[in-house]
């Protein structure tokens, strides 16, 4: 019945989209023809042979082939995981798809250079590290890489700094103000509303509940944040100094200033040229010693068939809405399974609405791990984690599945893999992280929101009939009694003991040694490496190489990549979040981010014991 309902909705929407597309195509026909050199090409290698050679007339030689420059626009948040299908292609360019395009350009002999237009990046340091790694592979392949910036913050600049040259227009702006961390505390607001969060926690650095229970940072939380700020600051200085061939003290001086015009940035050695885009193109011609170049803007993008006219078109649209194609390729090559673990961890199935943030359901991830493990061609598994944690029970169930699997598992951490996110990595043979990945946070929190004060303000009265000494432990009408608190703390202590014990076993440490590093403290990847909480600093590409090695495959061995869990169809995502609107997300990013944080708060209130790291550090 559900599928029939989806079919009915699809048919209803068909006529609207068909009319709109036909109108768009009619308007497109009226536009003047675009010069061949500006036509978007899906594959530079194939198109050059037919479009860039002019047939010689009698007595004339064919013109030389134009050097191909791939131009990629990088902006937005680059979600982790498989591509989420929309009606007319991917809803957003994913991190993996973007890196695949960059790597394809590195290997394509017909590509002479790459032009990266870096816009408003909204990503963490882990993703920046992945993109920098892809740029490094381009440069290793002897492909010049030019970065175009307009108004750039620290994150965009760190990516641009990894390129050969950085160019800005005269009207641009470079904003590199160092590191600043801000924490909003809600205790005063809750007091005014008559609300109280009665918190429980294990680990003195476990500060997830402090914004709800305090008006300022505790000493341990401030100590933790000071260390994170220092690590991020030192990493920024080291990267800029190495990329731009500057001294550390020079970079510190520039960060203290923070704001630069393009002309000042060039004088400071932070960028190379002040040029408009057309002048940048001329600069590329000189670099490539060519009179003309061909700029390809949609390199390696899949062509989207938007002809939905007629009955066959209607069925095509319905198929797009109801499901996609399986990601596994037929063949005999060994497979490395890439399993994504993205979002707050919950029990049950994952949710991936178009508007709300995605959640990582234990049932969904376990099913994906089992699918990989049961495939005889899968020789190793890479578990890509970008999660602040969540449900303690769900995290433990996922961990159990990782230790049961016979194939070697390599964990790769993205922007964040804290608390429950670290828990699910503990069963891996080896753990990779970026230098500024946020990880650790080995601790437990719990509690409940007490609403009695608000009810009193509103004139509401609650009458209670109960049986059992601790029957009110889950009630929002009163704080925990001393006996209830004792019972719940014992439960949290047992969860914490299991967490520390399994982490100690996975890292080959004694319980006491690991417990010293736990206490809910958050670390950057490079500090975690020094402390032995992870094995190696590196990218997802490095983790895949390690998986091949763990499987006994040679470094140059050809393998297929099986990406799991498979992405949901457009309608499945729509039903996961009926109020979905990707357009709204792009228009109102601050509101969307607030709603996502509210979702995490809802999880905190609905699940009594959590392995959750509350921090989200963005470098701007």
How does the SSE layout of this entry go?
Blueprint: H1 2-30, H2 44-51, E1 68-76, E2 85-86, E3 89-90, H3 95-107, E4 111-121, H4 125-140, E5 145-149, E6 151-152, H5 154-161, E7 165-168, E8 173-175, H6 187-193, E9 196-202, H7 210-213, H8 219-244, H9 248-257, E10 259-260, H10 262-267, E11 273-274, H11 277-288, E12 294-296, H12 310-322, E13 335-342, E14 345-346, E15 360-361, H13 362-374, E16 378-387, E17 389-391, H14 392-404, E18 409-418, H15 420-423, E19 430-433, E20 438-440, E21 444-450, H16 452-458, H17 482-506, H18 511-517, E22 522-524, H19 525-531, E23 536-537, H20 540-550, E24 560-564, H21 570-576, H22 582-587, H23 589-606, E25 609-612
Helix pairs in contact: 1-12, 3-4, 4-5, 8-9, 13-14, 17-18
Question: What does the model show?
Answer:
The structure is a single chain. With 620 residues, this protein is α/β, with parallel strands linked by helices. 44% of the residues lie in helices and 19% in strands. The strands form 6 sheets. Strands 13, 16, 18, 19, 20, 22, 23 and 24 form an 8-stranded mixed beta sheet that branches. A 6-stranded parallel beta sheet has the order 11-7-5-4-1-12, with helices on both faces. The longest helix is centred in the first third of the chain and has 29 residues, at 2-30. 40% of the residues are buried.
